[in-house]
Amino acid sequence: MMITLSALLLTGCAFEENLPEMDFDGTVRIPVAASQFSYQFGETDDDVIDVDDNRGFGPVYLGAFPGVQEGLYNYTHPEIGPILNTSQDGNTYPYGGTSIGRFDWGCYQSLVCKVVSGRFATYDDVLEYFADSLNDPVLDGEGNVVEGGVEFQEHCFDVLYYAADYEVTFIGETDFSLDGDHYVANVTLPHTTYAEGMAIWGWMDMPSASGNFSTCDEGTGEFHSYYAEEHYKGASVNDLLNFPGKYIDTGDWVVQDAAIISSPDDSFDLELGYLYVDE
Predict the structure, then answer these.
(1) Is 52 among the domain residues?
(2) Residue 11's pLDDT band (boundaries 50, 70, 90)?
């Protein structure tokens, strides 16, 4: 009896689920023009600055969908399922997805929902971007300007309980490199259900004129409590790929020509070449 049971257990370890999940590798190209946007650093109409800095790129959201279609919006959009609520489009039912960059609390409340991973190489890089490109310096919990990378690093180590820079995920190696007229990044869609003819599509969330991102909610996420500092760290909304039309707004860059996957061995090349402007 013991021998039979052992044999069954060994057989179970070799069970093959045959799940149709694959990793799909590809590249994403974003026009250089996408790094140009306007930012309002003050309260008046005159407090507007023209920015030309790819560190302002928001997250790029990519998904695999049954297909795409024209006519739902001014841009190509994934096919949708039945409309069950007249105030909202139907679900796109994605097979899988990922992002290039993600929102990451930047150790200060003034950076909640404003810092994206894969955009900044160093702490000074973050400070320079906000102070010089946006004319909106990073402030500490008492409203004072964070003066340098050492101060920034020490605060991050204190509030995150980290001891090394590699643990701080919003600084380090950047995602995009300049290649001619485009910024290019390599990406993998992991553990994606494969269906022949499926479409890979996506968009990049760019900051509004006030510096906000439509796909990040400042009032949610983990709660930060450190002495007098108490606030939420912010988090991405949870239905991005199911209802992308809810979140794409003026200034975002969208894929117009989705990549059609015909084989599990296919790779993809996507250009976010359409600038959406809400008219």
Answers:
(1) yes
(2) low
